[in-house]
Amino acid sequence: MSRIGKNPITIPKGVTCCLLGSYIVVNGKLGELKFNIPFNLEAIIKDDLITIKPLDESKKTRMLWGTARSIIFNLVKGVDKGFYQYLELKGLGYRVSIINKELVLNLGYSHVIKYNIPEGISITCINPTSITIYGSDKQRVGQIAAEIRSFRKPEPYKGKGIKYKDEIIFRKEGKKK
Fold first, then answer.
1. For residue 107, what are the CA distances in angstroms to 163, 167, 176?
2. Which domains does the chain have, with CATH numbers?
3. Could you give the count of Cα atoms lying within 13 Å of 167 in the half-sphere of its Cβ?
4. Where is 165: in which H helix or E strand?
5. Which helix (H) or strand (E) holds 9?
6. For site-directed labelling of 177, which of 50, 74, 118, 154 has its Cα 20 to 30 A away?
């Protein structure tokens, strides 16, 4: 019995959900998202609640039950409120700006790095050392944040690089004489 999978998902006002074959389609003020429900699970929409039911008791079904429920919950939350990811730049001369739908990063290399902002994702720079990524799809927001972070990962000696806002960088002691 899945502790996560058996909890129903409440549909907030302004969000509509419908079943089209094996897909569940979620519409809201931030767009439309859909998910292909695995063949051994069933989704039931009734009275502003979505419940996921397993069709058999196999191990694979039990593993997918909670995962499918979490993905559908993130779809509903994404089209209603959206997801944020915050990145910070640490280092002398490290800065970021947005020019013509491109994220321009100066990270201490001999060249600037230009990253095209994909459709459906909003990237803003409040100051030259912080990046805010916003979108309705939690997986895409996290993937884009990971791609931007991979341009210059934080190093453990001085803490320079791109890090998540709440990430803790464990510092190492330098060379001793």
1. 13, 19, 28
2. 9-80 (3.90.930.12), 83-164 (3.90.930.12)
3. 23
4. none
5. strand 9-10
6. 154
**What's 153's DSSP letter?**
P
29 backbone dihedrals φ, ψ, rounded to 5°: -70, -20
**Residue 42 is encoded by which pair of tokens?**
């069933």
For CA atoms 57, 51, 17, 15, the dihedral sign is negative
DSSP 110-147: SS-EEEEPPTTEEEE-SSTTEEEEEES-HHHHHHHHHH
Task: Supply the DSSP symbol for 108.
Answer: S
Q: Give residue-wise pLDDT tens across range 32-79.
A: 999 999 999 999 999 899 999 999 989 999 889 999 999 999 999 999
Rounded Cα gap, residues 130 and 150, in angstroms:
15
- The number of beta carbons lying within 10 Å of the beta carbon of residue 161 is 20
